[in-house]
Description:
Chain A has 403 residues and is mainly α. In chain A, 67% of the residues lie in helices and 0% in strands. Chain B has 2 domains: 25-75, no CATH class; 83-216, Alpha-Beta Plaits.
Amino acid sequence: MCNESNGISFDFCSIQGIIGGFLPESLDWLVFLLTAITLSFLVINALVLSTAIYTWFERRVLGRFQARLGPNRWGPFGLLQPIADLLKLISKEDLIPDQADRIVFSIAPVVFLVPVLLVVSVVPLGGDSFLGRLNIGVLFIIAVTGLNTIAIFMAGWASRNKYAMLGAMRGVAMLISYEIPMALAITAILLISGSFALTTIVNSQSVFFALVQPIGFFVFFTASLAEMSRTPFDQIESESELGSGYHTEYSGMKYAIFQLAEFMAPIVTAIIITTLYLGGTRGFDPIPGQLWFVLKVFLLVFLMLWFRATWPRLRIDQIMSFAWKALFGLALFNLVLLTIEVQLLQDGEGKLQTDDLWLMSAINWGIALLIFVMMAVFKSPNRHGINAQVSSTASIGLKLEDK
Amino acid sequence: MMNMYGIGIFKGLWITLKNLVIPGRMFTIHQYPDRKIGPMGLARMSGTNIFNFMLQQPMLFMKSMTGFTSVEDRMDQHPRFRGEEFSWYEQRCTGCASCAKYCPLGIIRIVTSPSGLQVQEGEKYAIDVFDIDIGRCMFCGLCVEACPYDAIHMGSGFEEGRYKRNDLVISVDQLRKSPKKPSAWFRPQLESKKYNPHTDEEVSWRDIGRHEKPTLDDLEEKWVKR
Lengths: 403, 226
């Protein structure tokens, strides 16, 4: 599996090479095992640590967005807040409701956390991914993120609590609905790159796919906001209506694992979006690729944070109609558009040159802007008369304001 | 253009971005009871710049760098704030129990005994029991309005939390020892002097009333030696 070495890269093969240097060749299986353990240890710890810092960052920046202070009591600027949170959650009693399905109740947090961790293993962080060149990386991502739905339903069902159940039902409906436009948007990427491997997808992005297919980027970004159930799509765990939804009955470390996975989701989603749409480790020369990667991930995370700070929660019917009426149509349109363009522009071997990608991005941006302006104009409130949409009391207020 | 569908989304984003970027948009927040302070804030408080502060107090500078220094922070209260721990002046009180009669909740209990003092002026009783059940008090201030001798005033404190309900009953000894920093509630004589109980000194019993209280010598002049 590891024949060629491509310089210093942080992947399975290079770590196997290092560990294999200390051990005889007859202990091949031990080298393999040690490499796997080392790698998963490194990945999980890096993710958990970055999540701990991210929780602080999110709460602090969210506070500034909303003109208040975030956590600021522990350490400089409140940097030790994640540790304080962890200590608090560890010291809490681990309650299981009397009527709950004990086994499913206990497994659910782990099932919720594991897919989030698994996804990172196929993402190329400079050179190859941790798992080498997994040639079905995209399929792996789609399959593994689908597990979240089951975990949420397990948690809601096993709690034997009607609010948890309601949250889980909404969650399942929402997550399954949003997986369809997400998968369709990814299909458009596969058309251009011609491969399921994430390494190939990154290498084929001489023009970032966010530029080549803005509609696909919009659809994928919005759908992934919904997939990790973040504001404005946090109907699953709506605190004000359902008492925090599917993890109503959880406490102690189980709750902490749910929170960990939930806070890890933005980072992992940003990593996926960076890989698929923003060129992964590609960038200008003086700055190394890994730094570009971190920068792009940070930008995306900040964008998600900004949305969370600004937009209120949508109703469940609005969320569903947005998935099926807007995103599904847009994703299909994007797919058809790109199919036509790729068919017209590809050369004899089915490859696309950089110039072709630029041409495609120009055409697609034009079409995307046209669509959004048309939507804005044709759905404008003035088109049908604003008074038709508001109640009589509100219209009195409007008239008074007009004068 | 501004009526277009979806423009409001971007307006909201613009507002939150302004919140993030412009520091002045943050509300003035008092972090009760203390707030964390960094080296810059400490230097500003001690009236020097940051480099002088670093040279003068290196230990404090290091401590503030790690974020473990804090300064007291209290919300500014109005002088007329009706706080706990009533300011009570025994010298002015005659034990008439007007406050107890006016109290709508009936939480003031006064027991007096004849003291033989100031017989000519009108009987002044010694106060044996003066219990105020702060735990049930709604701080309406009617007892203060009722007092004909300006002996009882609303207090200025707000940190009188206790673990037991019984501890909230203020006895006469506590009232004697209580800080004589009366709130300016229903006391125009204090407000006209711009008295602020949270910053100013204690007021003696002679200056608190609407009228100057005659001393014992004055009374002797008036009643005994005439």
